[in-house]
Amino acid sequence: MSVELCMGNQAIALAALKAGVNVVSGYPGTPSSEVLETVSARNPGAVHVEWSTNEKVALEVGAGAAFAGARALVTMKQVGLNVASDALLSLPYLGVVGGLVLLVADDPGPISSQTEQDTRQFAAFAKVPLLDPSTPEEAFAMVEDAFELSERFGTPVIVRPTTRICHSSVPLETAFTYEAHAVSGFERGSRWVVFPRRAYEGHLEILERLPRVAGAFNTSAYNAIHGGRESADSSAHSNSGGGEGDARRDDTGGAAHIGIAAGGISYAYLMDALSSIPDAADVRVFKVGTPFPFPEARALEFLEGLDEVLIFEECEPFIERELLLVAGRHHLPILVRGKLTGDVNPAGESSVSLVREQVLAWLGQRGLPAAAAATATAAGATAATSTTAATTAAAPAPIPAAAGESRSQEPQPQLPARPPVLCAGCPHRASYYAVKKALRGRTAVYSADIGCYTLGNALPLDMVDTCVCMGAGFTVPQGMAWAEPEVLHLGFVGDSTFFASGLTGVANAVYNQTDVTLCVLDNSITAMTGSQPHPGTGLRMSSDATERDAANALKIPAVLKALGVEHVTEVNPFDFDTSVAAVRAAVDFKGVSALVFKAPCITVSKPAPQPEVDQSTCTRCKACIKAIGCPALVVREGEVRIDTTLCYGCGLCVRVCPFDAITASVPSTASATPATSTVPGASTPSATSTTSSPSDGTPSKASL
Amino acid sequence: MSTPSLDIVVAGVGGQGTVLASKLLAQAALIESLSVRTAETIGMAQRGGSVLGHVRIRADLPAASPLVPLNAADLLIGFEPAETVRALPYLREGGTVVTAHKPVEPVSATLGDAAYDGTAEVAYLRSCEGAGRIGRLVLVDGDALCEKLGSTKVLNVVLIGAALKAQNRESARETYEQAIESLVKPRFRALNKQALAEGMSA
Ligand code: SF4
Ligand code: SF4
User: Fold this and answer.
1) Topology adopted by domain A224-383
2) What is the ipTM of this complex?
């Protein structure tokens, strides 16, 4: 026994290792990133682990390995699957030899994403089987099974955890020995070349395969039917035989003839919610762990004798639509309720409180006495809207009143909103501010992209006018430039995004001779997702030779020049005057110009000595705060001060104060702030530097 | 020795170390052979946004889901007054609140005219205690303790220490030291153990 506290993503990684995975590829994206990082950290040495340049590349790398008979895991977040979709749609036509498992993490809420899209729909679109875990423990089991399933049916398989599974921790038995899956080797044959003729055959193979997979799913323990007070575990092992007795015997009591179906973490919320609802034991529960291909026979068993069902699932009403189909196809007189009928929140996360409230409202509509009693005790739960709302809304849900006593409570003060912001000392702040300064008085549109630098949209910088998806920071301004040539058009992408999805946009601008300025915000790391390396850093997940790897780093200015951009300038954004001049020169260049702002993220650089505010000179005008909005610049007791726990000593504020009240301290008085991480070769950004040579941030290899 | 069932919510600002706090609470539960489930905020909010950690401890069967429902937390550990108030809907009637009282000013508040200094939030929390909404309120001068310890990075462990004391669970100190051993890098272990002791005697 070796029980460890494991995050869902760690559990997934360990399961892949337990299955003898040979190749693991992926592109970082919250909430999926820790999977690949864990494989790398626990790599027994035999596994090839790589951050690929984007999700499409990652999936194709995994597919190649699986064609050759290896077991491959490919990790990404849900929007990453959009990028990988070209490969995904073709792969089931060709099939695989070794197990190919895609770990695609959905993000209901969304908490850290640009969409609330549902990978279950993508699986149905691509005709790829999908497993939908409800807990980290189940994710662990499903990943192991997914490899078997993939090999047994010769198809890629998707495992789709959601944020609350990826980032929730549980104790897990993790003792196992890694045994590499035996790679059979690539066997040549016509099946691997997807000519139209082959595609037609492949389509027929898929259509023959999916019902067989559904057949296996119909008897899978991941799809369980049980009473409201049992759990799937207690009924899971009985479902190939006659274990459904409970579900069929329940025609006594108030809740007979009604059922609830749930998938993913909504099932866990449901079980917690039902445990506090009297008489919930009479409600029949259907846990859907394999939503595609839908286990129709199992669903029929669940629906038998029911007249109404309620569905809990996050993102899209996938199970709801499938159950409507099953009911329709079999002429079942059943009312299917859920998101489509407005009984369940159509968007945003779910929660125990929300599920409980929705179950009670439903039972109440059915006039069940049990519900009335429960409603009274659930006043608190129903008063608030949802955990998401309570987490993110500026005004939180009202505090439920304790009978009688609450009158002596003061009214709750208006709480300050707290959106995420660029860190104190973030080089992106300096880059955006330099652009803003340089173009003051001129009309410009700023299109940005996905990453920390999206946070440049917040006041006071207010430098992000559009943000669509990876790569659009370079292409949206091109369309705008043709539509509105009299305005300046600038695009911003990060270094990791540049390699992931920016290159084609650069080529397009050069090819079409579009008058735009393309800016790369190069902080030497994939920062937002937790400091992963990328081609521009040269560091690799399957190598420890960091110094030599860094020498292999792809140089962004050289890439831009090679793609035909004539005007390319690299600057250190903390070298402020040089940066401002470089911005002016770039926008005045007719045609495609590029600027590379290069300075390392604070997560991969050491703090510099902090400046000080001379209170006798400071006029309390707050010009520094209004200009750059650094979170370390605070107002306390009427004075503008620097919060020494946050300041990274970047020196930007020194340049901003119109009264020179902020002065850089002499370097010898070293800062007491501890470094979060030290990186060999990372130089410290300095505002006093007079050279325009960029600092050479070399990120450390990401680890747990 | 422990409460058979304990729901804890940890509330703070991204970057304050809330994730390690919930991990330590969970690891300690694991050491005590209890069932535990946690949920952390990882992602965009870590850049200075509001973050919540959920820790659900059970004596035998684990909770089905990782998020503490509203009105269910026995203990709320707040790293900053506004975030403590924001998370209060999670606290059950009469639950315990352990919070640092030094505010972290959001840029939007510093920019605007509506100053935020945490005093209104602390007064509100006190009135909630007076009204019974909060059973026990412990205000921790995290700033002073961190200064004494010579590091701003240990507010999380200081607050855990204070929470143990507030729950009369001083006897769990060794368990938590063990949790620190398994989750904190060797060179920071001594500092964190000291922080735990400071929090417990605060
Ligand atoms: S993590 Fe790095 S890139 Fe992201 S906001 Fe902070 S300093 Fe900037
Ligand atoms: S030097 Fe100024 S701008 Fe830079 S982190 Fe410190 S307070 Fe913020």
Assistant:
1) Rossmann fold (3.40.50)
2) 0.94
